[in-house]
Amino acid sequence: MQTETLIESSHVESSPATPVRRDKILLVDDQNELLDMYKEWLVNLPSRPEVQASNTGARAIAMLDSEPFDLLITDLRMPKMDGLQVLAIVRRKFPQLRLVVLTGVTDEAYRSRAYAMGVDLFCQKPTTKEEAQAFEACIESLLGREKDTGGFRGIQSKSLMDIIQLECLSQSSSVLRITYQAFEGKIWVQAGDVIDAEAGVMTGEAAFKEIMSWKTGTFEIMPDEPNRTRTIHTSYHGLLLDSAQAIDESDTKHQKSDTDVAKATGSPLAKFSRFEGVEFVLETGAEGEAPRAYAMENAEVVAGWTKQTRNRLRGIGNLLHAGFLGHVQGVGLQRHVTLSEHDKGALCIGFRRDMTPEQVLLTTKQIFTKWVS
Amino acid sequence: MGLLSKLFKSSAPELPRIPGGSFTLDAKGNLVSSTVPTWFPPSHLHDIGHNIVAIFRDAQQAQLQLSELIVHYGALKLTARELRGGAIIFLSPKNAQSSVAPGN
Predict the structure, then answer these.
(1) Domains located in chain B, CATH noted
(2) Distance between CA atoms of A272 and A332, rounded to whole angstroms?
(3) Could you read off the pLDDT of A128-147 as tens digits, one per residue?
(4) Binary contact (A322, B75; C-beta < 8 A)
């Protein structure tokens, strides 16, 4: 039987003459050894936070109800109430609380889901000193930012376009970090001008437009990087106008819902054809299951190639100790293809040949995320 | 960092080395050239090369004529270009430091 443990808070000596309110962190993990380890580690952060811990989600919520905290750090895999359930409740009940997921789960779908629920940071459990230091810096930054600069949360009603306009109109210098599903982008603003952007392998204006096409997600404003090289020379007005026009055109093109498209074509894969440049989509399921395809004739043959290629590439990965097999891109003279796999099967997507490898990879990731979810 | 040393010294197994470099196979499957470190077994290079060539060949039979293959593994990017029945293969290990940064 699982025992619920409330680990006492840690205290650090402070002068009675200077009653400075310390940040309070609540740790949630079902492994008591890890809780002890993280706790010992976090109380030694430069801001000397007060750290409390709970080994169940239910206990954590009760603790949050009874006293205010600044930051919640939770694991995902826990018995009874898992981390996602904890996050869902906490986000609703304590919207001002900063949330961090610290987990051993590497599945991108969990990361996307956690970010969609409004977590501030999704981290793998550190296994090296470097990872530990990076995590420590992130936590310190999260605590410090709120304390030093104040700031509002819950501005989901503002679009990214509004945020950029605000940054530019106020002649700010900052870096906007935007997270959308499994993707991350950055926009550099200096003295009210957008000077650079980065989204995956895309940079400059292309990256800016890509980021602006993301309709949801989370963002944070990071300190300025004054030495950043300028790659964007168009005014922010021009950039925003171009982006708004592109979004309008895209909305018109995509006004039919996924369900409408699936009904009209008779294929649940048809919705993916609305992504720019997609020519065909093929899905292979479990062993013995017939492949499902949209807009392709030789589905059986391509499904066979998909399966054999995945097996071969997994074998190559084992020889090289290269880790998990991610997305595979095939560049062709007539079309490009990508292969992606998940527990439920594999996805093979055909793209127009005028798409760049960067565009193909980005679109594949977007489709894959949608397919998995 | 005394705590960290205590935490991590017992759980730090030796990481397997990941080879970087490039190698070329001709249409007959012979290894023509290689810049891959010598500690990596040549037989593995043959196996990798033959599998890549087979992927290109089978793609053609499936009416997917491919000239290049980019494979994203967790710790390595493999790029292969078709060379008249053979292939040139580039192995690029990913930077460990950048791949561990939170949020990536």
Answers:
(1) 18-95 (3.30.450.30)
(2) 20
(3) 777 777 777 778 777 765 44
(4) yes
